[in-house]
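A further point concerns the way the authors explain their paired sequence and structure data. The central task, working out the structure tokens from the amino acid sequence alone, is never made concrete. I therefore recommend that a typical entry be quoted early in the introduction. An entry of this sort, consisting of the sequence and the corresponding backbone structure tokens, reads as follows:
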Amino acid sequence: MPTTPPIRTECPPGSCICERERLLATPGADWRILMLTREEEKRLLLRLESISSLQDLRHMQQRMAEQLGLSISIGPGRAEVRTMRGIQIEITDQPGLCRKTRQSIPAAIRKGLERKPEIAYALLDAYDLFGMPG
């Protein structure tokens, strides 16, 4: 008897813009993001807060893309980078991604960068003067 993996419970009506119902109603849609339950999200956020290197951060980006279908770009912002707020972290919009999750993932990455500023320096060093990956 095959079992289906647990999926995220729906948000209270009117509090989220995740379009969960539309995703569930679409035949052949990518449901991977719905497998990020609240418990799994907590584990993911703790893992992102404890990144140990730029290579580890890139590995986490790759794993989130593979397992959840999340596309996250991390790089220096358009203006001068003086604090961790200057590092731009963007998650591509996709149906099923909760509004709170969309905010908490970049916040967790920033916490990890603040905890280990050498990762932020390595991230900035990976880009040239014009903000292009080198």
About this structure: The chain is about 45% helix and 5% strand. The chain has a mean pLDDT of 84. The longest strand covers residues 72-76.
